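Protocol step 6 of 9: fold each sequence in the batch and record its structure tokens directly after the sequence line. For illustration, a two-sequence batch is reproduced in full.

Sequence one:
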Amino acid sequence: MSDYGMMDKEEIYSKVLRAGRRTYFFDVRATKAGDYYLTITESKKFTNDDGSFHYKKHKIYLYKEDFSEFREILAEMTDYIISEKGEEVISERHQKDFKREDDFVAQEAKTPEDTQGTDSFTDISFEDI
């Protein structure tokens, strides 16, 4: 590959964000015409049953003509999520005892008949259905 071809593949400016099993790479690269664009790569680590691992990568190419609209929509979406759900991270993976609000509402709505023990259950065979 020529030196020019190698320059096309080089990062001009890079930042890395490590987030658990995910890593995000932000890379400024140059087009053949010498203009700059941004690549955002998500790399996620997966472990195989035998203990070995592999990575899955997803890449977005973002060109200057799209920066303004991309930035506006990204800000709108992130602001919406924060205003609706706050900044606290709620995840069943992070909190083993996490219960969704729906679970509390469903439990409060149960009648005394709903909360009886398993003694009142009828055994049903799938063959009966």
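Sequence two, same batch, same settings:
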Amino acid sequence: MQAFTVVIERDPESGWLVGEVVELPGCYTQAPDLPSLERNIREAILAYLKTLEVEEPLPTFVGTWRVEVAV
């Protein structure tokens, strides 16, 4: 079993949740609620891994920063 980091944001236009897997570039999905998003992201991860041909190690998630700047 392998763990993945999912960043979740709310789409401002649709109001849906969008989840992106940090360690798998381009692996993302959306859903109207968290239980649906979890189900969808698990499916997206499995599909991504089945098509993965690169034998290089996957990146390791380190963390996130929230940076404020004056505009």
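Proceed to step 7 once all outputs are recorded. Observation for sequence two: The chain has one domain: 1-71.
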